Amino acid sequence: MDASTIDRPFGCPLDDPQQRSWRRFTDADAAALAGAYEAAANAGKLAELAKSMGRTKHFLCRKARDLGLTDKNRSKPSRLKGAVLWNAPGRPPHPRGAAGLTHSPETKRSLSVKSRKMWEKWAEEKIGQMSDASRNRQSDLTAARHASGLMPKRYSRSKSGYRSDLGAIFFRSAWEANYARYLNLMIKLGVVQSWEFEPETFWFEKIKRGVRSYLPDFKVYYTGDDVPTFIEVKGWMDAKSKTKIKRFKKYYPQHRIEIVGSVEYRTITAQWASSIPNWESTRVAAGSLA
Q1: Class for the domain spanning 161-275
Q2: Mean pLDDT, to the nearest integer, of 228-239?
Q3: Distance in angstroms (rounded) separating the CA atoms of residues 64 and 50
């Protein structure tokens, strides 16, 4: 695919910013990006490529990094402060003549007074951005985006991406990828019949704010058992994750769930890692987000 000839949207109207922003990044999108990214980057046409795919340039660059299309260890140019950048030789002046300007003490005091009034109004009258009604509206909007499948999960410290030995599945961490390899070995040994990755989202309909849904990592069918077991691979169980598990057990007691934490993962690693090809070396201490 030649980046200079890309002119079609990938599955969503370009004139709908909300749909363009929250549409799920599919395997087809990943394949299209892999085929066009290098040519577009070399030609300085990443913005055009992003527009044709209904995305932002920043989003595509981040996805290219996750897919291994860029060198994470490359040297990065230093970021200059705005005043220096606008006044640099060959650069145009600041469009509003604000290069190097800062707020005056009077303006800062005025902003401070307005901010205090806003919080006092919320505390006394319970209206504004921090009111229950406003927070409920935001929670409803986020829940609707999750339910539509248009809002992806994001992790900042995990080794996310596709693995060549695991097919077209986007894993969000090396732990998840390794556990999938472990399950494949269990299939060969006859212990596991089949497994799926993130196949089903469970909603907590009675919850109106906060943690309102849960997406388990794996759905596993053990040999001879018609009832699936849901597996959560979690290196660090934060407060939000604990709430998800607690509510899942409360609202869906008919389902079984197992937690593969650092202790369980360490045990699997010690026993099976040397027997499983492509096993990724990770930290297994508590708190790790490998």
Answers
A1: alpha beta
A2: 91
A3: 12
How many whole angstroms from its chain centre is CA 224? Answer: 35
pLDDT at 271: 94
Residue 62: what are its φ and ψ, rounded to 5°?
-65, -40
pLDDT band at 13 (very low <50, low <70, confident <90, very high): very low
Q: Which one is predicted more confidently, 131 or 169?
A: 169
pLDDT at 83: 45
Q: Residue 218 carries which DSSP code?
A: E
Residue with structure tokens 């913005």? 47
Q: Is the pLDDT of residue 203 over 50?
A: yes
Helix (H, G, I), strand (E, B) or coil at 238: coil
Backbone phi, psi, residue 56, to 5°: -100, 160
Q: Which of 27-31, 87-91, 168-172 has the lowest mean pLDDT?
A: 87-91
151 CB-near residues (< 8 Å, 6+ apart): 22, 24, 142, 145
Banded model confidence at residue 238, pLDDT cuts 50, 70, 90: confident
Given strand 218-222, what is the order of strands in its sheet? Answer: 192-197, 218-222, 229-233, 256-260
C-alpha–C-alpha distance, residues 170 and 176, integer Å: 10
How many other β-carbons are positioned within 10 Å of the β-carbon of residue 199?
12
**Which alpha helices (H) appear in the chain, and where do they start and end?**
17-22, 27-42, 46-52, 57-66, 82-87, 105-125, 132-148, 174-188, 239-251, 262-272
Residue 91 structure tokens: 């650069």
Q: Pick left, alpha or beta for residue 44 (phi over 0 → left; psi -120 to 50 → alpha; otherwise beta).
A: left
Q: Which two tokens stand for residue 69?
A: 């299309």
DSSP string, 36-90: HHHHHHHTT-HHHHHHHTTS-HHHHHHHHHHTT-S-TTS--PPPPPHHHHHHSTT
- Ramachandran region of residue 225, left (φ > 0), alpha (ψ -120 to 50) or beta? beta
User: Of the candidates 205, 200, 191, which has an alpha carbon nearest to the alpha carbon of residue 257?
Assistant: 200
